[in-house]
Write a structure and sequence with these properties.
about 30% strand; binds beta-D-glucopyranose; alpha+beta; Jelly Rolls; seven-stranded antiparallel β-sheet; ten-stranded mixed β-sheet; Immunoglobulin-like; 5 domains
Length: about 900
């Protein structure tokens, strides 16, 4: 009897894509002991989810593809987890490479194909792995050069066999550029990121295989000052930072040749050192380059480094901190911009208008006689005569010029130059000293910031809101350079309050998670044993007793909390649990009957100076104290620390009661200060008994009416008002505030030509701050209605608000599971809503509708649509459970 061949199981429609390790695609230099792997799933079909997965990992790619996994083989794991799966294979050694792939099973038990192989590689994990020494150039005086020019270091070495793999592990403080055989390595700029160097310094891993050759090779490194050696007196005393020293280099390169032999090249006393053409560089002042001081070919094998201007490198102590891998998105040049106008405002004084404000620097192409010096000064504003105005950003600088680069020509044809070790915030560049007149194209600009990828897209029928959105994105990018800064010119500091106020917006718009992870580690480096935190992170010692307080410091708790909410990442809450708890305990030591009187308040309200707010700072400080205690309680619960969870939850409740006793008047529904901020604080921080909320909301609505539908808050209240109105069902009022065009409003800035968000409603001071940027989160949350229902958007709420004169909204957010879409448009009194829910997640979708029977999906009654189930009806909307897939709902809007 012949047996009929069994029918092979059909392949799953699921496809694995976008595999990442610690949020990065194929990263080198990972130091996390149990790196987390994540993947996304794609499918054309609805109701797709993962029911099991299998990860295979091997040290060799071919072996992996042949199914041989020497590092890790999970077998089939019955689990829907596709995000943050911890590596649990063989212990990973220093420099271990790991190829991995994954396949998944769908709800019907069918397997997907394996993902294409992905890669990650460990860095130098133990201090003893470092054989290199810290080196620099001995002090040299260069005739006619006032400061110590930036060092250049070189090392010649031989390779006898073809290299098959080579990694350079490099830390050059403050900044470095690496060259191999005359070729610049990598596309990062301003590496490594700023840290509290005497606690922790970062090294960067580069694949240099392709730059090496058999025979003579040369490694060359240029060093800049960065935050390591702030030379000029400025706002928060970084010139007195305890770590401050001359620029220095630590480099270790491992080369494996085709016969398996390994060559290790380390920075040490055998390197040769000299000075380069950068004769001055300071973060806020700018950079001076004298091209006549260039040593042509210094980074190639043909160069002779035995001249009198070369010396043996000097070995010196390191910065004091431990070495860690830079494991986050780097800073890059992300674009080149041509001026929209170039005017000669006075003889020899030219002003370029770049058309918008951003962070970066100029790139000039100039020819002229040797010794000619071209000066570039950067500004955000113009004077009436058309010349630049730096008055709004130069304030904090106590010595030297503000945002000024200088280039001295060597006089050899066309010279193309751009600075390396500084950056600026600007829209206008004043050019003086130019030989003749610059032509269009001679002065261009480079856009420079941490090179985030977009995670969100937003557009709507209101052009003003679209322009505000563009300003939100611009201010965010211009203010991320390895840390979230307040502004890209005056201070460039990691002001904590600004950062947490923006963080939700940033997470909707960008893949900031690896960068935030690094920055939260910076908090641990600056936290005092008492638990106290400074207002700027990192700090050189300034900012513990002014510029801080719960409304700023809470960044240390809120950003990990947001990463948990928006990315499903609990690791920061775990890793910093003790630090967070210590911070809350510290607040306990300064609180009086649970009231915290210390700290900055509702900064930069519309009238008066920056801190002239009417809402008492102690009210907002105490509200943050309560929220912080809640976060610690929830983090404790996640970590299984039940006693702590109870303790901090009781503390939060005691703070809440103290807050109400002190600031709330139940008779009037008013709060101390009787202003938008104090009312919104009570609502936003969830401090009121449920029964009291309508009363306070009413008072808030009256306050807003008294201001004719305008915001009357600084940076704290502005965030609260928009969200608590929306949560209370009054997104229409928030929309009215958002679309105002006279003072104070975002629209008022736009009407005055803003291309980024400003520091103050009245337009004084910086024109590139992001602390009012949370309206960018409101676009996604309130208009698109996309909100994480469970951590990491595993379950999404899609609840758009059809408000005001808005005709349509398109909001897309790439969650850890894939793209969530909420697009809607009005067609008369009908609403068409396009929704996408990525595989392996699901959603609660609120469809505005007269009644649920008035809702259809894909042209059929919604009750017959696959993947959709009615959960309930509410006044004015029907609520559905929606599985993964794309859907088109149509409804009749309530009358
Ligand atoms: C910064 C702000 C910061 C504030 C707090 C300012 O100088 O630019 O953004 O939050 O100080 O004091």
């Amino acid at each position: 009897m012949t047996r009929r061949p069994s029918v092979p199981p059909r392949r799953s429609a699921l496809r694995v894509h976008d595999p990442t390790c610690e949020y990065l695609a194929n990263p080198l230099g990972i130091e996390t002991a149990r790196p987390r792997l994540s993947w996304k799933l794609r499918s054309e079909r609805r109701e797709e989810r993962q029911t099991a997965y299998e990860v295979q990992a091997a040290s060799d790619r071919d072996a992996l593809e042949r199914g041989k996994s020497d590092l890790w083989k999970t077998g089939k794991v019955r689990s829907s987890q596709s995000v943050h799966v911890e590596y649990a294979g063989r212990a990973l050694r220093s420099r271990q490479g790991c190829w991995w792939r994954v396949r998944v099973w769908d709800a019907r038990g069918r397997a997907s194909p394996y993902s294409p192989p992905a890669y990650f590689e460990m860095g130098l994990l133990r201090p003893s792995d470092w054989r290199a020494r810290w080196i620099t150039c001995p002090p040299i005086t260069v005739p006619d050069v006032p400061e110590q020019p930036s060092p250049v270091l070189r090392k010649a070495f031989r390779l006898d066999r073809p290299p098959v793999s080579a990694r350079a592990y490099v830390s050059g403080l403050g900044y470095f550029e690496l060259y191999v055989n005359g070729r610049r390595i990598g596309d990062h700029v301003l590496d490594p990121a700023f840290t509290r160097y005497d606690r922790r310094a970062l090294y960067v891993t580069h694949d240099v295989t392709g730059a090496l050759a058999v025979g003579e090779n040369v490694l060359g490194v240029m060093l800049g000052n960065g935050w390591y050696n702030c030379q000029t007196a400025e706002v928060w005393n970084f010139q007195q930072a305890p770590w401050r020293d001359r620029p220095k280099l630590l480099l270790q390169m491992h080369v494996t040749s085709d016969d398996g032999t390994e060559t290790v090249v380390c920075s040490d006393g055998t390197w040769r050192a000299s000075t380069g053409p950068v004769i001055f560089d300071a973060l806020r002042n700018g950079e001076t380059c004298d091209a006549r001081q260039e040593k042509a070919g210094w980074d190639t094998a043909a160069y002779d480094d035995r001249g009198a201007d070369w010396h043996d490198a000097q070995i010196l102590p390191g910065p004091g901190g431990t070495m860690h891998a830079q494991q986050h998105t780097p800073i890059r040049v992300t674009g080149t911009v041509d001026p929209v106008a170039l005017r000669e405002v006075r003889p020899g004084v030219f002003v370029c208008d770049m058309g918008r404000t951003f962070s970066g620097w100029a790139r000039v192409g100039v020819s002229g006689p040797a010794g000619t010096q071209v000066t570039l000064r950067y500004a955000e504003k113009l004077l009436e005569d058309g010349d630049i105005d730096q008055s709004n950003i130069a304030g904090g600088l106590k010595s030297g010029d503000c945002q000024t680069d200088r280039y001295t020509l060597k006089g050899k044809g066309l010279e193309t130059w751009e600075p390396r070790f500084t950056y600026h915030g600007f829209r206008y560049i004043q050019v003086t000293g130019w030989p003749g007149k610059p032509a269009a194209g001679d002065v261009r600009s480079r856009v420079v910031h941490t090179d985030f990828e977009r995670r969100g897209e937003f557009a709507c029928s209101n052009e003003l809101l679209n322009r505000i959105h563009v300003c939100v994105l611009g201010s965010t990018l211009s203010n991320y350079h390895g840390l979230p800064t307040d502004c890209p010119h005056r201070e460039k500091n990691g002001w904590t309050g600004d950062a947490h106020l923006s963080a939700e917006q940033v997470l909707y718009n960008f893949n900031a998670e690896s960068a935030y992870t690094k920055w939260i580690d910076d908090f641990a480096d600056v936290q005092r044993p008492s638990g106290q935190l400074p207002g700027i992170v990192p700090t050189g010692g300034w900012g513990y007793n002014w510029g801080s307080g719960p409304a700023w410091d809470s960044a240390y708790l809120l950003i990990p909390w947001y990463l948990y909410r928006y990315r499903g990442d609990a690791r920061l809450l775990e890793r910093h649990y003790e630090g967070m708890r210590r911070y809350v305990d510290f607040l306990g030591t300064i609180a009086d009957g649970h009231i915290v009187r210390f700290g900055l308040g509702d900064w930069c309200p519309p009238t008066g100076g920056a801190d002239s707010h009417v809402c008492p700072a102690e009210l907002t400080s105490t509200a943050y104290y309560c929220s912080d205690a809640r976060i610690v309680s929830q983090a404790a619960a996640l970590a299984g620390k039940a006693a702590d969870a109870r303790k901090y939850s009781r503390l939060a409740e005691a703070i809440r009661q103290a807050f109400l006793r002190r600031y709330y008047d139940p008779a009037s529904g008013q709060l101390t200060g009787r202003c938008q901020t104090s009312l919104a604080t009570a609502l936003y921080h969830d401090l009121l008994p449920t029964a009291e909320r309508p009363k306070v909301l009413r008072a808030l609505l009256e306050e807003i009416d008294r201001r004719d539908g305008h915001i009357d808050c600084g940076i704290l209240g502005t965030k609260y008002v928009m969200h608590c109105l929306t949560d209370a069902g009054r997104a229409d009022v928030a929309y009215r505030i958002a679309t105002q065009e006279d003072f104070p409003s975002w629209g008022h800035w736009i009407r005055q030509g803003a291309t980024t968000l400003w520091e103050r409603w009245d337009g004084e001071a910086s024109r590139c701050h992001h602390m009012f940027s949370d309206i960018g989160a409101w676009f996604y949350k309130a208009l698109g209605g996309i909100v994480p229902e469970t951590p990491g958007f595993r379950r999404v709420t899609i609840r758009p608000n059809v408000v005001g004169d808005l005709e349509w909204v398109r909001a897309d957010h790439k969650s850890p599971f894939g793209t969530i879409r909420s697009h809607w448009r009005r067609e008369g009194n009908r609403l068409v809503m396009e929704v996408a829910v990525p595989p392996n997640s699901d959603a609660t979708v609120y469809v505005p509708a007269a009644e649920d029977s008035a809702v259809s999906e894909g042209g059929r009654p919604v009750r017959r649509a696959p993947g959709v189930a009615l959960l309930r009806t509410e006044p004015g909307r029907a609520v559905f459970n929606v599985c993964s897939g794309t859907y088109v709902f149509a409804s009749e809007l309530p009358g």
